[in-house]
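Project standup — Tuesday

K.O.: blocked on the structure for the chain from last sprint. Re-posting the sequence here as requested.
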Amino acid sequence: MTILITGVAGFVGSQVARALLARGERVVGIDNFSPYYDPVLKFARVKPLRDNKAFTFLEVDIADREPMLTLAEQHPEVDRIIHLAAQPGVRQSVTDPYVYVQTNVMGHLVVLELARRLSRLKHFVYASSSSVYGANSRLPFRAADRVDHPVSVYAATKRSGELMTETYVHLHKLRATGLRYFTVYGPWGRPDMSPYIFAKAIQEGRPIKLYHLGFAKRDFSYVDDIVAGTLAVLDKPAQEPGHRLYNLGAADSEEIVHIIELFEKALGKKAVVELRPGEPGDMLETAADITETRRDFGWTPKVAVEEGIPKFVEWFKAYNGL
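H.V.: unblocked you, prediction finished:
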């Protein structure tokens, strides 16, 4: 059978596709190469996938209804969906909200419409975000916590996706699982995320802006762990139609200043730091409670930041010819 992956040129999507192909699955991948960041990185991620005969690539925007819904006729063999396509970025969602609603709300709706048209579909897995926890103050965040107070448009759109999925499960008897990812990093990571920004700034001797006056903390999750968790969930759909939500994170909130120290060590250079107050939409701290994820899927993260950041830096230097 075949797995459909949306956002297959993305950071997580490309590595999920690679892992599925490596274990002998057939994959249909779609992406629209959004210019939110340099598409050259996206093309580079997809290139080795396209060399595999078990991989089919389609350039499609998930919010474009007609080509998306025709996939049900073109690929009726699809029996699982991993929906990872999204417009990322918390801060930009505050200044340019329209594209977030178009991609993350309308796009999610279209993918759900496709899902209900696939007669062989066994499992619909999609990426949510730790951002949905918003103004919640109790840590670590639990999947069962109320998430009524998002603090960014991005977070609101990801919560909208969760609610729409709940409705489609009720109406169309889908088996769906949402995964709240926590700050994924590692090789092939996005250039708009803090690990890439830190590495580039330190390498070039430019200042790093540390928000929340340097007191911010994040649950940094290594990409290989996230891929393993995503596949563990994919392979274990609920026995009955229903909608489940789980956290995928390292379950260890790291001080940003410690992360920068690890980058300094890996790069052999000191960072120049500028302390800034928090910006609208920023969360001060994130931390995942993964008790239920461990219990239900036997998954646990393995790569600590002390190991993962040097691996990221090794890729960063090779990719940029340093």
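K.O.: great, moving the ticket to review. The radius of gyration is 19 Å. The mean pLDDT is 95.
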